[in-house]
Amino acid sequence: MGAIEIKELHIKINVDNNKKASESTAGKKAAGANKDAIIAECVEQIMEIIAKQTER
What does the alpha-carbon distance between residue 43 and residue 53 come to, in Å, rounded to a whole number? Predict the structure, then answer.
């Protein structure tokens, strides 16, 4: 069998801005950290894709 190569990565994220009023400050900080981790991972994957494209 041949290798599978992913040429494009599409990421779709749904963001709900209507959060519950009872959400705690600690919960907001944790959500912010999680959001930062997701963004960092996306940036890393995009940079890998760009690097592969420039190698060609």
Answer: 15
